[in-house]
Design a protein that fits this description.
With 280 residues, the chain is α+β, with helices and mostly antiparallel strands. The chain has helices at residues 2-12, 50-56, 121-140, 147-158, 166-173, 177-181, 184-210, 216-237, 247-274; strands spanning 17-21, 36-40, 45-46, 67-76, 90-102, 111-119. The strands form two sheets. A four-stranded antiparallel sheet has the order 3-4-5-6. α3 (121-140) packs antiparallel against α4 (147-158), α3 runs parallel beside α7 and α4 crosses α7 (184-210). The radius of gyration is 24 Å and the shape is globular. The N and C termini lie far apart (67 Å). The relative contact order is 0.07.
């Protein structure tokens, strides 16, 4: 896309230099050279509010046609750098509205409205874990199933060595129970992790059904990684009653413990079946 646009405008304006701006941040026009042509390119995704997703855009067609609002994200920190530690990583979401709905007869349409929303580091983490969970859920329920994609996502999900993976996110935000108890965002993040663990368990079960004998050892290794993954997260996900549990969290805690208990028992049973004890 970048090369095509650059070639197009170079042919149209052969006497001027065409420069591509790949950064999605704000452009200070005062710093631009008037003799050059600048094209800013960034990745956009359709933007839907909660009402649209639950009422108006339920089908795949609805989510891909007749769209006027799009969003792109720009990472930033309060120190001025684009990227930083997880607890200092903010995100600016720019929501744009186009004059005509897309797809359209023309490939480019004017933008008539801009709106900016800043996400705190905790909100960025919530969004990240929600996206991971949703992708894992979609891959697990694919028909026909895609075992290779499922394994790639599982490996990235439950590996404890992935840089800025789920474990690092939890360690950055959920280590202090008092801070978690006082923050609705961190309580929501903890709920996202509980949902994520359950989806990982479902994905492992699905993968067990899809693989052949040649991948049994790989499956056992992933299940061992999953047990380690849950053990590392467990102290951060159990609700500490510092200021009294709201009823909703009491119910969530009980439900979560029951599901994890069943999942752990299933993993142990599977391990016994796959690796029977040697008899003397």
């Amino acid at each position: 896309m970048s090369l095509r646009l650059q070639t197009l405008y170079r042919n149209r304006f052969p006497q001027r230099t065409v420069e591509i701006l790949k950064d999605s941040g704000k452009v200070d026009e005062a710093t631009l050279d008037e003799e050059k042509i600048y094209i800013q390119i960034t990745h956009l995704e359709p933007y839907f509010d909660r009402h649209e997703l639950t009422q108006d855009r339920k089908t795949l067609y609805d989510k891909n046609f007749n769209i006027r609002r799009f969003v792109y994200s720009t990472p930033f920190t309060k120190t001025g750098k684009a990227h930083g530690e997880l607890k200092s990583q903010w995100q600016r979401q720019t929501i744009i509205t186009t004059e005509n709905p897309l797809p359209y007869l023309k490939t480019r349409v004017p933008v008539i409205e801009w709106e900016e929303v800043e996400l705190t580091p905790a909100e960025v983490a919530i969004q990240d874990m929600s996206v991971r969970t949703q992708k894992l859920k979609q891959t697990t329920s694919m028909d026909p199933p895609n075992a290779k994609l499922l394994q790639v996502q599982l490996q990235g999900a439950i590996s404890t060595t992935v840089n800025q993976g789920p474990i690092e996110v939890a360690l950055a935000f959920l280590c202090d129970p008092e801070e978690v108890a006082l923050s609705s965002h961190l309580q929501k993040l903890r709920h996202c992790f509980r949902e994520f663990i359950l989806r990982c368990g479902e994905a492992l079960d699905k993968n067990r059904q899809l693989i052949g004998e040649d991948q049994r050892e790989y499956q056992r290794e992933m299940e061992r990684n999953f047990v380690t993954f849950k053990q590392k997260l467990a102290p951060m996900l159990l609700y500490k009653r510092l200021y009294g549990d709201p009823p909703v969290y009491k119910r969530e805690e009980k439900s979560y413990l029951q599901k994890i208990s069943r999942s752990s028992a299933h993993s142990k049973d599977e391990e016994k079946i796959l690796k029977p004890e040697k008899k003397c």
